Structure prediction request, 208 residues.
Amino acid sequence: MIILYSFRRCPYAMRARLGLALSEKSVQLREIILKHKPEAMIQASPKGTVPVLIEKDGHVIDESLDIMKWALEGSQLLNSATNTMHLLIKENDEVFKGWLDKYKYADRYPEHSEVYYREQGEIFLEKLERQLTNSNRLFSDEYSFADLAILPFIRQFAFVDIDWFNQSKYQHVRDWLTNFIDSALFLKIMKKYPTWLESHQEISFPEK
Ligand SMILES: N[C@@H](CCC(=O)N[C@@H](CS)C(=O)NCC(=O)O)C(=O)O
Prediction:
């Protein structure tokens, strides 16, 4: 049995579940609480972040992008991922995510204002907005590996202050996000499950 430790609202876990939802593979999903991580998860991956995937032979994959790649191995979606896409994901993870955290928890970073942190994040939104002028998704009208890896973080950014986001100038980004949130795919990966710690119930994901 292949195990995935996951946390529903974590954008890294979301991208892993997106990869799985579009793959032929299936796992036993263990929904965790970040404040109370299962011992078995920490033993497999001492750094204590989700998502964590444990293969049948015990091999551990504890980076969300690696789980996406594992899930989508041999697929058109992964095979058509370009260097430009990987660079955009890298910018998301290494630059945008930092500003997103500061924007979301601005009270913990009093050096600057919430608006300042938002504006830093907007540099990435502006880039995506330009990218979405010519197509419905980032690189064509279809979801690419990059859309799936990045969208969960844009969703988080949007919901820090949804009223601001809804009236922001990023019309294409807004449409792109709305489309994603309204999709059957998103619904599938956001289904609520009981936490594994309490239930120890094995849940097959994605549901067929
Ligand atoms: N680089 C990791 C980052 C994963 C990560 O930071 N996940 C967060 C939740 S969104 C986490 O587990 N944080 C540990 C904690 O909050 O205790 C990945 O891509 O999988």
About this structure: The chain has eleven helices and five strands.
